[in-house]
Amino acid sequence: MKNSPRALLAVLVALLLSAGSGICADPQGYEIIDTQQVKQMMGAEDKPLLAFTLSPIEFAIEHIPGSTCIPFELIGNYYEMPEDSADPIVFYCHGPG
User: Fold this and answer.
1) In what order do the strands lie in the sheet with 49-52?
2) CA torsion angle for 63, 53, 35, 22 (degrees, to 10)?
3) Dmax over Cα atoms in the chain, in whole Å?
4) Is the distance from CB of 93 to CB of 10 less than 8 angstroms?
């Protein structure tokens, strides 16, 4: 996938949307991060789980290497989510527009 800020700009859009739907009852501790912050996190020893929130078809076409496809509608019960709630998770999609 091209290294585009637009592709990662919506890093926490899924979290913000899910906060309204009840999946994330407490949005405290969530933040929108930019491409540079994702790069820094991926360079750290304790890398976050990268979750691509669109369809498996879109994931097959384009995604960040090392990420996992977790369609938005399945986030609440997905088995690949970390057991430790302190582990960082970065949700991303193609961004707005």
Assistant:
1) 68-69, 49-52, 89-92
2) -170
3) 33
4) yes
Which of 6-10, 21-25, 30-34 has the highest mean predicted lDDT (pLDDT)? 30-34
Length of the chain: 97
Query: Taking Cα atoms as reference points, which of 79, 74, 53 lies closest to residue 64?
Result: 53
Predicted local distance difference test score (pLDDT) of residue 78: 61
pTM: 0.60
Compute the distance between CA of residue 88 and CA of residue 71 in angstroms, rounded to an integer: 18
Neighbours of 41 (CB within 10 A): 15
Q: Are 49 and 80 in contact (CB under 8 A)?
A: yes
Nearest to 64 by CA among 54, 73, 74: 54
Q: What span, in angstroms and rounded, lies between the C-alpha atoms of 70 and 45?
A: 23
